[in-house]
Amino acid sequence: MTAWFMENLATILVGLVLLVVVAAIVLCMYRGRKKGKAGCGCGCANCPMHGSCHK
Fold first, then answer.
1. Residues 6+ away with beta carbon under 8 Å from 52
2. Torsion of CA 16, 22, 25, 27, to 10 degrees
3. Any stretches that span the bilayer, and where are they (predicted)?
């Protein structure tokens, strides 16, 4: 088991870094959505879905 872990250490580390980055992005999007910010970063005036995002 230890030999397998050491052989795949680089892959495991890269996977963990990617997991942390994706989790940070999702958390940032979640917090922005709770604050009422748009998901696309632009205003709602020209958005075709402007009536369904914010009530």
1. none
2. -80
3. 12-30
Give ∠ CA 42-43-48 in degrees, rounded to 5. Answer: 95
- As a whole number of angstroms, the distance between CA 24 and CA 42 comes to 21
Query: Is this model's pTM higher than 0.90 or not?
Result: no
Q: How far apart are CA 55 and CA 53, in angstroms?
A: 7
pLDDT per residue over 25-45, tens digit each? 999 988 887 887 766 666 677
> Per the structure block, which two tokens stand in for 17?
């870094």
Phi, psi of 33, deg, nearest 5:
-70, -40
